[in-house]
Amino acid sequence: MSETQEARLKRMAMRSWRRGMKEMDLILGPYADAHLAEMDEDRLVIFDRLLEENDQDLLPWVLGQNVAPAYLTELIAEIGVYARGRLALQ
Prior knowledge:
Oligomer: single chain
Number of helices: 5
CATH superfamily: Flavinator of succinate dehydrogenase
Strand content: under 5%
């Protein structure tokens, strides 16, 4: 049996908040809460693949310290802008 869309979004949101590295929890969790429900299928597939990446790789990509893989470049840039925007407001 395949995963329902509701279960999929719930799983992805939980995985965004429970990364293993607190910094990534605080970056991906709020981003997922704000954007998962509006993502189209292609973006959901990419975000799901992003969730499989190691936090030790993700954080430098989001911070612009390392170059993300091509398939993640656009999403990582978007997440970085969102995270910086949230930090600027606090």
